[in-house]
Write a structure and sequence with these properties.
membrane, 207 residues, 14% strand, 7 strands, alpha/beta, 5-stranded mixed sheet, antioxidant, two-stranded antiparallel ribbon, Glutaredoxin, 2 domains
């Protein structure tokens, strides 16, 4: 074999393989920290959301916002600080989760000032469900978000269908429509509270 007879050629070959592996790893890290491998979000329609059957007590989603509008969280956002403004305007703050794995809802309650429902159909995570796989764990933003949640005392879970990305909706009263739709770009990607406040102030309650 020519490589065996020429140590220098063998060394160059191993060096090239090493460089190729490093290059592939760097390319993987680069792609994981962009949105190039993440499917584009598909905006939900009011008709799509309002037909969802929500469990806790079984209700149609439309009843949440029919009279006064609503802020609906399908992610672990830090929106409880907006509770005084929402109460002043008569707008409910509710959370929907995909499932109740173990004590997930029980663990979440101390960190959320509102009602929690289970969206088994995952309408608030669609119409096109987006998942962030294992590459998400090498995104810098994901680790920053995990650390922020850990410091606040809520760690969430990656069990069950925890890899599905969620979002936040501000929905107007009656047929006013969706006034704000925020979709997570990565685990823990929070909506801007100022954007939520601005959208909530546009809600016109049904008399």
């Amino acid at each position: 074999c020519s490589f065996a007879r020429s140590p220098s050629l063998f060394g160059m070959g191993m060096w090239s393989l090493g460089l190729g592996a490093v290059g592939a790893a760097l390319a993987g890290i680069f792609l994981a920290n962009t949105d190039l491998c993440l499917s584009k979000a598909s905006n939900a329609t009011l008709e799509y959301l309002e037909g969802a059957d929500l469990h806790g007590e079984v209700i149609k989603a439309k009843s949440l916002w029919d009279k006064n509008g609503a802020v609906v969280m399908a992610e672990a956002s830090e929106l409880s600080s907006l509770k005084p403004l929402l109460e002043e305007l008569g707008v409910p703050l509710v959370a929907v989760v995909k499932e109740n794995v173990g004590t997930e809802i029980q663990d979440f309650r101390p960190h959320f000032a509102g009602d929690i429902y289970i969206d088994e159909e995952k309408r608030f995570y669609g119409p096109l469900q987006r998942r962030m796989g294992g590459l998400g764990f090498i995104r810098l933003g994901v680790w920053q978000n995990f650390m922020r949640a850990w410091r606040s005392g809520y760690q969430g879970n990656m069990n069950g269908e925890g890899f599905i990305l969620g979002g936040v909706f501000v929905i107007g009263a009656g047929e006013q429509g969706i006034l704000l739709e925020h979709r997570e770009k990565e685990f823990g990607n929070k909506v801007d509270n100022a954007d939520v406040s601005e959208a909530v102030k546009k809600i016109v309650a049904v008399k």
